[in-house]
């Protein structure tokens, strides 16, 4: 019958201020979740169970477990402390209710603290007396508690909640999963197998039978000596057997030495495995990051210089933004200059006329000939104006010539203007033309500039985002060592890793050779045995030989049985572990891989992850590593199902899981533990109205999630007013 | 005076600005020092031209304070040398010749040297006063915090006037 | 019973089964108490039972010798 925790309550326990009824959490079978951000009672909640089972609390200041009496002054709620005057006392404690099929139990552990000094927070300001352990029992149908008086009975009841041996698999604080299943330690899986099987019994039997077999052999030899038919050959064979036995013993010792070497190297390799993968990945990311930085830098430079150039477009004749809105001015100027020229022309004409009026007017009446007609007249030697002939050489002809050539020869004797500014204004007009012909194009140009700027800015933004994402990826990868030594560290880790692998190889080779030797020696021994048996006198009392035969056969059989039991359990664990693993990674992208438990040359069990092509996958993210370990922990529990009926109490074991792992986790534990109480912060979202993340909101709708509590702390108040409030969301 | 003389006389002039405009000039013109939060022109003459054109658009002329409270800067001929810009500016100035100078183009040709030099001084004064008017407008916007904080501040302002 | 299970596990060794004529169908019926199927079952039962009684190897061996009627 499974034990189910019905409720947990606190009295003046850390941030849980108030009496038991005020701070009570009710739980059901199935999955119960308490969502809390750091500092909102998460690990304090867990401390209650430490107290319950071990009379200890984890001191958050130095992360060490301390006895209740030593740390009581830190346990008491600050608010309660503040309300207790000098000489008065208060009570701090925890209370747990749980039920099995027939009974319900209530366990209360508390202490009374009397204030003996002014200062609230000193260790010696409070006199602590541990109260008696209170255990009450009631038949479930009766609903009335009756106290339990016998101390042993009380202890039994507490232990029944989760058996001590199994507590390490059921009672998981933070990163304790790592310590339970430390794959670099030979003993991890073996401990589990030991808990799950009766292998210790086999080990006892092996010890026994070895002794017994030796005794039986001695007896047989003694008896053999007593009878007559002793031949040299028998003696020699027995000596041979002794020698072989001795050599075997030496080889076995050597073997175990090398097994240890192998183990040490393997442990180092496993520790480095994680870091190695990370070091490589980190290097890769570093290269990507610096490449991205370079591209970003040049994109920024391009963008910046583009921005600087924007205002240049006012004054650059190709864009001519400065001329925007000045069409009219330009038109005006054109008109003015036209008028200007016309006036000048007239002025000049007037001047010429006034200088030599006769020439001017007689030769050029209203219908005066133009240059072409003049030419005609000259050529035809006839003046059409006066209608008289003008032969070459005559006065008339000479005059026509003079007229034609007049403008060039006869410059006016004085300038027709004081300042000839035609060139000045004419040049203005000509030179300024780049600025006068772009009016229509300017709005387009501005638009295009804005577009181009947008393009360049988008490019910079995109590169920035890519860079940010790379940097955040890099941050996720842990690597030990100081930041400043990064590169050295990465290199030395890679070298160490390679070194460990090499040592493993070397040890493995030696081990193989030794095992070969041992096998051969054993073979020789058994042949020698047979020989000895043949050489023994045939008239020995049957009992001795039979005794010896049975004992030596049993010796081998018990050793084999032990191995078998061990291997079977390992296989079973592997099977269960894979089942849980598939469940856990269901929402992830990791496809098709399996977990494999393999016996190493050192004789211990190592956990490998083999992908769908049969290749071993090393490293992986921290969340992935946790997942592997968690699968094994859950396998240990589910293999034990017939006897495992204890709740899971897990305090944020998901710190390094990704969102997808977290989802798989909640689904999987429901299938293994009859009840789980999980404290997490990953579902907390301070900005959300309900304070739940998307995953939290999803989980609240699931059927197998029975209760969800939300712990919040009133932030921003004095320490003495800090309390944790709980809200039941489901 | 010949055309070349007339031209070089004008181009050799160094326009002036009121000293009180210096904070504004620092804020809006000074490429290289990225201290301003606003879009900037590079050399001072760019901002000056802009202000002048702004003043012409808005038809705001503002006399400079007494000479000792003013500072001169680059001579006109050196503004964006080898470019059509200065010609364009002079063209714009002279497009208002009658209104601003009191003479039309032809009149100018009949002036005595002394009078023509006076015209040149007046052209300079025009430039300075339109610029001053434009700068005053910019300064008012700046003080009221109405200057747009974008790279397109100048062109947007130009368009809207 | 756990002792029976251990006994059966040890004797399920194929070589043992062959050498001592233990039939497969009978393996599951082997018990660590009398009546004993054969001598090896008896010896093993003594060892298993007396180990649970916290007897040491010398004490257990004495008993085994009795099974074989040797001194």
Structure description:
The complex is a heterotrimer of chains A (730), B (161) and C (71). Chain A has 730 residues and is α+β, with helices and mostly antiparallel strands. Helices cover 56% and strands 15% of the residues of chain A. In chain A, strands 1, 2, 6, 7, 8, 9 and 10 form a seven-stranded antiparallel sheet that branches. A six-stranded mixed sheet of chain A has the order 11-16-17-3-18-19. Chain A has a two-stranded antiparallel ribbon with strand order 4-5. In chain A, a hairpin with a 4-residue loop joins strand 4 and strand 5. The two termini of chain A are 26 Å apart. About 1% of the residues of chain A have low confidence. Chain B contains eight helices and two strands; from the N terminus they run H-E-H-H-E-H-H-H-H-H. Chain C has one domain. Chain C contains five helices and no strands. Classes of the chains: A alpha+beta (730), B mainly alpha (161), C mainly alpha (71). Chains in contact: A-B, A-C. At the A-C interface, helix 8 and helix 18 of A face helix 1, helix 2, helix 4 and helix 5 of C.
Biggest beta sheet summary of chain C: none
Low-confidence stretches of chain A: 480-484
- Tally of DSSP helical segments of chain C: 5
Shape of chain C: globular
What is the arithmetic mean of pLDDT of chain A? Answer: 80
Keywords:
heterotrimer, A: 730 residues, alpha+beta, Rossmann fold, Helix Hairpins, seven-stranded antiparallel sheet, 21 helices, B: 161 residues, two-stranded antiparallel sheet, 2 strands, 4% strand, elongated
List the SSEs and their pairings:
The complex is a heterotrimer of chains A (730), B (161) and C (71).
Chain A: E1 4-11, E2 24-26, E3 30-36, H1 42-54, E4 56-59, E5 64-67, H2 68-75, H3 78-83, E6 89-99, E7 103-115, E8 126-130, E9 134-139, E10 146-147, H4 151-161, H5 164-170, E11 171-173, H6 176-180, H7 187-196, H8 199-226, H9 232-310, H10 327-355, H11 357-363, H12 371-380, E12 382-383, E13 388-389, H13 395-409, H14 422-431, H15 433-436, H16 441-476, H17 486-535, H18 542-584, E14 594-599, E15 605-610, H19 622-639, E16 648-651, H20 659-672, E17 675-680, H21 694-699, E18 705-713, E19 724-728
Parallel strand pairs in A: 3-17, 3-18, 11-16, 16-17
Antiparallel strand pairs in A: 1-2, 1-6, 4-5, 6-7, 7-8, 7-9, 9-10, 12-13, 14-15, 18-19
Chain B: H1 3-11, E1 16-18, H2 22-28, H3 44-58, E2 70-72, H4 85-95, H5 97-101, H6 105-109, H7 113-143, H8 153-160
Antiparallel strand pairs in B: 1-2
Chain C: H1 2-11, H2 14-19, H3 24-27, H4 39-52, H5 57-68
């Amino acid at each position: 019958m499974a034990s189910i925790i019905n409720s947990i309550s606190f009295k003046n326990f850390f941030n849980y201020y108030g009496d038991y009824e005020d701070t009570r959490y009710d739980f059901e079978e199935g999955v119960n979740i308490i969502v809390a951000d750091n500092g909102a009672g998460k690990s304090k909640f867990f401390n209650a169970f430490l107290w319950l089972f071990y009379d200890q609390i984890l001191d958050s200041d130095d992360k060490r477990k301390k006895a209740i009496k030593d740390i009581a002054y830190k346990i008491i709620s600050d608010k309660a402390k503040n309300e207790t005057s000098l000489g008065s006392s208060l009570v701090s404690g925890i209370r747990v209710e749980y039920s099995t099929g027939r009974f319900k139990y209530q366990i209360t552990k508390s202490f009374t603290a009397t204030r003996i000094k002014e200062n609230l927070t000193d260790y010696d300001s409070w006199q602590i007396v541990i109260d008696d352990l209170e255990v009450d029992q009631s038949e479930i149908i009766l609903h009335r508690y009756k106290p339990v008086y016998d101390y042993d009975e009380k202890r039994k009841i507490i232990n029944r909640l989760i058996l001590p041996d199994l507590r390490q698999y059921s009672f998981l604080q933070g990163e304790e999963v790592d310590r339970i299943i430390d794959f670099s330690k030979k003993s991890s899986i073996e401990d589990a197998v030991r808990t799950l099987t009766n292998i210790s019994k086999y080990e006892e039997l092996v010890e026994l039978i070895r002794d017994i077999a030796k005794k039986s052999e001695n007896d047989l030899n003694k008896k053999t000596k007593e009878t007559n038919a002793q031949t040299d050959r028998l003696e020699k064979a027995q000596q041979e057997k002794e020698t072989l036995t001795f050599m075997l013993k030496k080889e076995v010792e050597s073997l175990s030495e090398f097994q240890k070497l192998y183990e040490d190297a393997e442990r180092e390799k496993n520790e480095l495995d994680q870091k190695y993968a990370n070091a490589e990945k980190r290097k890769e990311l570093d290269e990507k990051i610096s490449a991205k930085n370079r591209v970003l830098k040049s994109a920024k430079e391009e963008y910046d210089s583009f921005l600087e150039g924007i205002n240049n477009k006012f004054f650059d004749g190709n864009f001519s933004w400065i001329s925007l809105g000045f069409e009219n001015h330009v038109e005006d100027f054109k008109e003015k200059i036209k008028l200007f020229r016309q006036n000048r022309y007239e002025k000049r004409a007037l001047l010429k006329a006034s200088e030599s009026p006769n020439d001017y007017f007689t030769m050029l009446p209203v219908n005066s000939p133009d240059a072409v007609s003049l030419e005609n007249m000259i050529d035809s030697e006839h003046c059409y104006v006066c209608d008289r002939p003008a032969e070459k050489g005559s006065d008339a002809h000479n005059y026509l010539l003079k007229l034609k050539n007049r403008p060039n020869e006869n410059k006016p004797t004085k300038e027709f203007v004081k300042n000839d500014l035609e060139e000045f204004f004419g040049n203005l007009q000509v030179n300024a033309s780049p600025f006068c012909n772009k009016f229509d194009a300017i709005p387009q140009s501005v638009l295009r500039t804005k577009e181009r700027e947008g393009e360049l800015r988008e490019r910079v933004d995109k590169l920035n985002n890519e860079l940010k994402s790379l940097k955040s990826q890099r941050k996720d990868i842990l690597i030990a060592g100081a930041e400043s030594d990064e590169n050295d560290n990465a290199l030395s880790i890679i070298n160490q890793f390679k070194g460990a692998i090499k040592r493993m190889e070397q040890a493995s080779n030696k081990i193989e050779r030794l095992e070969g030797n041992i096998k051969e020696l054993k073979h020789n021994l058994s042949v020698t045995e047979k020989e000895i048996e043949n050489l023994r006198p045939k008239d020995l009392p049957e009992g001795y030989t039979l005794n010896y035969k049975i004992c030596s056969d049993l010796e081998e059989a018990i050793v084999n049985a032990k191995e078998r039991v061990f291997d079977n359990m390992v296989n079973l664990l592997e099977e269960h572990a894979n089942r849980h693993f598939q469940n856990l990674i269901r929402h992830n992208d990791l496809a098709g891989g399996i977990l494999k438990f393999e016996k190493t040359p050192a004789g211990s069990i190592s956990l490998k992850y083999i992908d769908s092509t049969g290749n071993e996958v090393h490293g992986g993210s921290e969340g992935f590593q946790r997942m592997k370990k968690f699968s094994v922990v859950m396998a240990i529990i589910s293999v034990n199902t017939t006897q495992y009926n204890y709740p899971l109490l897990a305090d944020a074991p998901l710190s390094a899981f990704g969102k997808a792992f977290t989802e798989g986790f909640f689904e999987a534990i429901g299938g293994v533990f009859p009840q789980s109480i999980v404290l997490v912060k990953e579902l907390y979202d301070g900005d959300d109205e309900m304070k739940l993340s998307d995953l939290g909101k999803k989980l609240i709708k699931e059927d197998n999630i029975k209760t969800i509590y939300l712990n919040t702390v009133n932030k921003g108040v004095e320490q003495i007013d800090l309390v944790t409030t709980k809200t039941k969301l489901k | 005076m010949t055309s070349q003389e007339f031209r070089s006389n004008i181009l050799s002039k160094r326009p002036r600005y009121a000293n009180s405009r210096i904070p504004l000039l620092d804020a809006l013109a000074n490429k290289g020092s990225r201290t301003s939060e606003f879009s900037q022109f590079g050399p001072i003459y760019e901002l000056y031209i802009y202000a002048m054109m702004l003043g012409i658009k808005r038809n705001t002329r503002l006399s400079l304070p007494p000479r000792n409270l003013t500072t001169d800067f680059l001579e006109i001929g050196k503004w964006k040398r080898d470019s059509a810009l200065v010609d364009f500016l002079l063209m714009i100035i002279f497009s208002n010749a009658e209104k601003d100078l009191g003479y039309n183009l032809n009149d100018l040709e009949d002036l005595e040297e002394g009078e023509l030099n006076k015209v040149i001084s007046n052209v300079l004064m025009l430039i300075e006063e339109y610029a001053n008017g434009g700068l005053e407008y910019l300064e008012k916007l700046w003080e009221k915090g109405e200057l747009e904080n974008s790279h397109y501040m100048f062109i947007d302002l130009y368009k809207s006037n | 019973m756990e002792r029976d299970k251990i006994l059966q596990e040890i004797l399920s060794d194929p070589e043992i089964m062959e050498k001592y004529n233990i039939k497969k169908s009978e393996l599951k019926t082997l018990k660590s108490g009398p009546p004993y199927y054969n001598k090896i079952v008896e010896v093993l039962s003594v060892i298993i039972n007396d180990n649970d009684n916290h007897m040491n190897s010398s004490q257990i061996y004495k008993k085994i010798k009795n099974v074989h009627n040797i001194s």
